[in-house]
Amino acid sequence: MKSIGVFTSGGDAPGMNACVRSVVRSALSLGIDVYGIKYGYNGMIEGDIYKMKSYSVSNIVQRGGTILKSARSKEFTTPEGRKRAYEQLSKRGIEGLVAIGGDGTLTGANIFYEEFGIPTVGCPGTIDNDLFGTDYTIGFNTAINTALDAIDKIRDTANSHDRVFFIEVMGRHSGYIAINCGIGGGAELVMVPETSTTIEDVIQTLQTGRDRQKTSSIVIVAEGDVQGNAHEIAGKVSKQVPELDIRVTTLGHIQRGGDPSAFDRILASRMGLAAVEGLINGEKNVLVGIVNDRVQYTNFKLAISKSKPLNPDLLRLVDILNI
Ligand code: F6P
Asked: What residue's CA is closest to ligand 1, atom 3?
């Protein structure tokens, strides 16, 4: 393999830059040319592609966001879009790809591989930590630290005013961010898509806390919870217990920004090298993961179709620690 392309796609995640840097420098060290593809699959279709040098990735290991930009591409979901993308790659002699992103990115890469056979290795770049085949995704560690910093601040004001706060964190289909923030932030309750907490459960937990002399409470809500978003849940609780002084904070995209933590920089750097080495060693259509501190490759189909269940110990821990 003489030439590869690298791109970031889907929601950005802190540490994507560290991963791009590692891919570029690992490839160059093996004498392989690297092309940066901008704006994910959109840039692939439009030919927004440039040759990267070692200096192209200088001074980015510590930066949030992605120098390659990112997008969620509608056009790549069409056969015409994918054909155009393939033509752009062939024109430049790009023989392999490193795709950095979440499940949408891997789904696209899988279809593309099946249609055109370009070997692709994925690096899990998403704050959601919801990909099967890796213990941690790039960006998750930074995101929970960012969220915790905000939750700690909210706790101060919740405490001063004897209030109940519903704090919404990201995670459309997964409660990884919520459950970890709940434990780290000392929340009274965590609501995640994987479990079905009822409004009665919420009220009961808050009441139990009050009975134990708690004057303020924090409920962490994953945005994909079955009861709705934090505002909706807070509204339902307020209707039934109007005497509670309730406030709602949605942390939103603040969780996706910021400089990557040490953990994410190192994880991303390891995964970038593993992606390039994987391609050289004939891996195709696989996700790079690190499981029990060892590099592992998981077929895209498996990585996409299998869900990574929440550790039940974590769910249990929230209940035990909130007494
Ligand atoms: O990156 C994944 C994710 O953060 C989800 O948790 C969230 O639902 C989504 O992205 C938001 O995406 P967008 O930036 O497109 O609104």
From this structure: 11
Query: Residue ranges per domain, the chain?
Result: 3-139+260-305, 143-256
Element (H, E) at 169: strand 164-169
| Domain 3-139+260-305 bears CATH identifier 3.40.50.1820 | no
Active site residues: 128
Kindly give the number of the ligand 1 atom that is closest to the alpha carbon of 223: 8
Residue of 128, 225, 255 to test ligand 1 pocket, by largest number of atoms within 8 Å of CB: 128
CA 274/CA 283 separation, integer angstroms: 10
Taking a C-beta distance cutoff of 8 angstroms, is the pair 190, 147 a contact? no
Ligand 1 atom, smallest distance to 256 CA: 4
Residue 281, CA distances (Å) to 30, 188, 275 in order: 12, 49, 10
Q: Please state the CATH superfamily assignment of the domain spanning residues 143-256 in this structure.
A: Phosphofructokinase domain (3.40.50.460)
Nearest CA to ligand 1 atom 11: 11
DSSP 311: P
Q: Which of 190, 193, 212 is nearest to 201 (CA)?
A: 190
pLDDT per residue rounded down to tens, the chain (323 residues): 999 999 999 999 999 999 999 999 999 999 999 999 999 999 999 999 999 999 999 999 999 999 999 999 999 999 999 999 999 999 999 999 999 999 999 999 999 999 999 999 999 999 999 999 999 999 999 999 999 999 999 999 999 999 999 999 999 999 999 999 999 999 999 999 999 999 999 999 999 999 999 999 999 999 999 999 999 999 999 999 999 999 999 999 999 999 999 999 999 999 999 999 999 999 999 999 999 999 999 999 999 999 899 999 999 998 899 87
The contacts of residue 66 (CB under 8 Å, 6+ apart) are: 8, 12, 16, 17, 20, 100
